Amino acid sequence: MNKQNNTQITSADPDDIGNNQSGNASFDSVLEARISRRSILRGGLGGAAAMMFGGVALGGALTACGGGGSSDSAAPTPAPTPAPTPTPAPAARFNFNPVAKNVLDALTIPAGYSAAVLFALGDPINNATAAYKNDGSDDALSFDFRAGDHHDGMNYFGLNAAGTARDPNGSERGLIAMNHEHITDAFLHVAGATAPGGIRPQAEVDKEIRAHGVAVIEVQKTAGKFQLNRGSSYNRRITAQTPMELNGPARGSDYMKTAYSTAGTQGRGTVNNCATGDTPWGTFLTCEENWAGYFSRTGDVSANRSAAELASFTRYGVPSAASGKRWDTAGAADVYKRWNVAASGASAAADFRNEANTFGYVVEIDPYSASSTPRKRTHLGRFAHECAVYAPVAAGKPVVFYMGDDSRNEYIYKYVSKAVWDPADAGRGLAAGDKYLDEGTLYVAKFNADGSGTWLPLTLANTAISGYAGFSFKTVADICVNTRIAADAAGATKMDRPEWCSVNPKNGEVYYTLTNNSNRVTTGASGSKLLPDAANPRAYEDMKGSTKQTGNVNGHIIRTAEAGADPAATSFKWDVYVFAAEAKAGAAVNLSSLTDDNDMSSPDGIWFSPKSGILWIQTDDGAYTDTTNCMMLAALPGKVGDGGAIKVANSVGGTALEVTTQKGKNPDGETLRRFLVGPKDCEITGIAETPDGKTLFVNIQHPGEDTKVADLGDPSKFTSHWPAGGTARPRSATVVITKDDGGTIGLTL
Ligand code: FEO
Ligand code: CA
Ligand code: CA
Predict the structure, then answer these.
(1) Ligand 1 contact, 274 CB (< 6 A)
(2) Which numbered atom of ligand 1 lies nearest the CA of 14?
(3) How far is the centre of ligand 2, averaged over its atoms, from the C-alpha of 587 (Å)?
């Protein structure tokens, strides 16, 4: 989620969340410089785009475009030269032409490709549940057996041909585990949310709780096309109410004790599940992002809460009064009351004062066991988890996971297991998770100006933490539950909203999207307002129509190379792979020289295909949407250090500030190319691929989310009708993308 205009109190909008007031330093030389202001204001693409794409619409909502050939056929033939010189081996070539930016209410894909909707909001996952009516009237409890809303991160888990067992190479039949991050409550209910911010109707809350969480579905190729297998016994929904085990160092601690689990060993539900990961042992990791906004503290007396509790509430943005979706108001049962974290009873065992401590984790789910209980892995820390991605494993070495905390000015983390990898654990499921994820060391990243970096341990042995004046860290659980505060104490680098990360299968380098940060300034830094630094080097102005946007408006992608190519190393090198920007932006903003074929804003999802090696980049943008809807691009990046140091000439409000950073070699049209553009008001997020690289699954989240509740009676005012078209309400959905000739996606291998 990235929209800035979602002001309903029922929203848990992450974009305006920024709770890091710690004094962690920025570093940089400050020199006089000026940025060249862009002089061209841009409007929408309008009729030209509609004409360009109008003739090849598929079902009105899935649109193919392009020149009708692969880039190979479109590439110029080299002219013969009288004295040929040796040339390097040809680089890999994309097998599609770039898709043009557009603001159509359609999914636009390259010529030679096809897309079909697989799994949309409300679709039944069994044969007993009725088809989705999509008018807001569907029964609340039926969402235990329907697709949730706001499809987000997902992973594919292969099955054998019979569907009876895990097969990591299964490309004809498999499971998809996916997140349902949030809801568009305008369309989920008949007439939007009733009494947002007030006393909520139970039926609406029951539906909202169930429209969140995770879906596990079996998909199977039938007549050459992937379909949902509604009869599959693997299918399940995990919602904001599903029982969970609390694992790791915080299990059984006082932090976790509630009226539901007086021993502090269990919790219920998962919310705001953003991105994901998988594991070398065949499980799914779902990550709780903006969970804090789901809670209220109604009637709580701060004088009755400890200083540590209040510091934790503040640092995580847990509200101090009634807030969020007000699920707590829907009834007297504890499934509702638990969303209010007031200390209302005689002790923690008598109320839900600690309920928020049971959220903010990486949650492990065994997709192959529909009856298994998910486990919250507290040793991977508590923050606005975006994703958790493992480094390639080696026998006898620790297992390492990389993670980002997506809020403004938050940090990048990694977890290094204590247990070393035993290949016999592949496929052992949650038991292997217990072994590798419940004991280890959590680190947070510090980026130095010279292109080096340090992983700072979040341990009691780190005296910056054990001796921290701002919070008393006495146990490992203290660190696991108050991870952000421990990272403040350690001296981590505040980043421009770390979103997804992914590991390059070719060299183990790790790519992290830093989606944007409106809090970067060139003067007057204080509190959450920061000067740019080497790793977050841009602060500039960009116009969206007549609205001026400031800060790191368009985001960038940073990458790291661990010392000695060892994922467990405590130091690394870094550079910026690409600076997102509008192609027409001045050179001081468009630092990577992006063109109309590959310019983008607010990179968010990022994922390397293990088969093709393509780095897929997905956007969740609100800054460039006057020109183009959100998109997905294919990249063939180089490596850390293939560029060099550059000076960035920033300027905000007429104040210049030059910053030196490390930038990779610029991409070009052969190494970065737009693959698709989504429908109106959507975010492109979530990607998975069959192991053979021939089927790509992509999630389209919240098309039409800017539709006003007041306009629900007039479908002509919906901002999107995707995917059904006509007068339909829009729906988040998973699409299946294939190449018409049956080839691999993106690159012909
Ligand atoms: Fe749910 Fe940070 O995106
Ligand atoms: Ca703009
Ligand atoms: Ca995201």
Answers:
(1) yes
(2) 2
(3) 14
Given a contact cutoff of 8 angstroms between Cβ atoms, the answer to whether 438 and 248 are in contact is yes
First to last CA, the chain: 34
The number of the ligand 1 atom at minimal distance from the alpha carbon of 515 is 2
Nearest CA to ligand 1 atom 1: 274
Q: Enumerate the H helices of 394-533 as residue ranges.
A: 430-437, 463-466, 476-481, 483-490
Question: What's the pLDDT tens digit per position in 581-606?
Answer: 999 999 999 999 999 999 999 999 99
Summarize pLDDT for 79-108 with one digit per residue, the tens.
445 555 666 666 679 999 999 999 999 999
Q: What is the DSSP string of 289-348?
A: -S-GGG-B-TT--GGGS-HHHHHHHHHHT--SSS-TT-GGGS-SSHHHHTTB----SSSG
Ligand 1 neighbourhood includes 271 CB (under 6 angstroms): no
pLDDT at residue 317, as a whole number: 98
pTM over 0.85: yes
Residue 289, ligand 1, Cβ within 6 A: yes
Q: CB–CB of 174/216 below 8 Å?
A: no
Would the pLDDT of 484 be above 90? yes
Domain ranges, ordered by start, for the chain: 14-57+89-291+359-739
Is residue 15 within 6 Å of ligand 1 at its C-beta?
no
What is the Å distance from ligand 2's center to 627 Cα?
8
497 Cα nearest atom in ligand 1: 2
Pick the CATH number of 14-57+89-291+359-739 from 2.60.40.60, 3.20.20.70, 3.30.559.30, 2.120.10.30: 2.120.10.30
Q: Is 410 in the pocket of ligand 1 (CB under 6 A)?
A: no
Quick check: CB of 658 below 6 Å from ligand 1? no
pLDDT of residue 471: 98
28-56 pLDDT per residue, tens: 322 222 222 222 222 222 223 323 332 23
